[in-house]
Design brief:
There is one protein chain. This protein has four helices and 13 strands. Strand 7 and strand 8 form a beta hairpin. By secondary structure, the protein is an alpha+beta fold. It has a 13-stranded antiparallel β-sheet with strand order 6-5-4-3-2-1-13-12-11-10-9-8-7. Helices cover 23% and strands 50% of the residues.
């Protein structure tokens, strides 16, 4: 009888923790604009810069719900098209030859699915998780946060929510080199939706990159999209 009661108590506790975790995600979705505003996003254009290992580069990305997208970079005055995909066909930059390779069917499918994820890595991970566990409150850099653990097919991550704003402050994943932490230092709002504006990435205690958005355009006019980026540069 005691064993049965123990099993029931563990089951009830696990359900409660899962519900608490789901509640934190719901509060986060509301805090960044709500489901209705998010569902109104059909395409997004982002511009910004990345500081990494002493180097500075500018970037531009475009994505839409059909799975089309591209990424361009400018480093030390050199323009590079990192990838482009449209209507299920695309290319990627070959970093060794500095040329371009056509995507095979499997690669094109992966890039297309990734391009449909319009809300950013953190929000996408929260919306697509397979398992969730509430871990309670933890302190990070002198401040307490509500923490959950989420799992998908490939990884496990800890997510830290600000208890006042309900926004995500940190996301931590383990790697072979050690823990990788994403710190969202600042958000920017456009058309009623908040996006991470400044993301600092650390490996252990060492900062390895800082990405800053300088412009976010939701459902941009076609004239603002670089149509040439969808095809292999000549």
């Amino acid at each position: 009888m005691k064993n049965i009661l123990s099993i029931i108590l563990v089951f009830v506790a696990s359900m409660t923790f899962a519900q608490k975790g789901e509640k934190l995600i719901e509060q986060y979705i509301d805090a960044i604009g709500g489901k209705e505003k998010l569902s109104s996003i059909k395409s997004i254009l982002k511009k910004g810069n990345i500081s990494q290992m002493g180097q500075e580069l500018e970037f531009e990305t475009y994505q839409n719900i059909k799975g089309d997208g591209y990424m361009k970079m400018n480093m030390m005055g050199m323009q590079m098209n990192v990838y482009g995909i449209k209507d299920g066909k695309g290319y990627t930059m070959n970093m060794q030859s500095m040329g371009y390779d056509e995507m095979d069917e499997e690669t094109a499918k992966k890039f297309s699915e990734s391009s449909k994820e319009l809300y950013g890595d953190v929000t996408t991970a929260l919306m697509k998780h397979k398992e969730i566990k509430y871990l309670g409150q933890e302190e990070m850099n002198g401040k307490k946060y509500e923490v959950i653990e989420i799992k998908d097919e490939n990884s496990t991550a800890k997510v830290y929510f600000d208890p006042k704003t309900h926004l995500v402050k940190y996301m931590m994943v383990e790697s072979e080199q050690g823990p990788i932490t994403l710190e969202i230092a600042e958000y920017v709002e456009t058309k009623g939706v908040k996006f991470p504006k400044v993301i600092i990435t650390k490996l252990g205690d060492q900062e390895i990159s800082k990405a800053t958005l300088t412009e976010v355009i939701v459902n941009p006019d076609p004239s603002k999209i670089d149509q040439s980026a969808f095809t292999i540069p000549e």
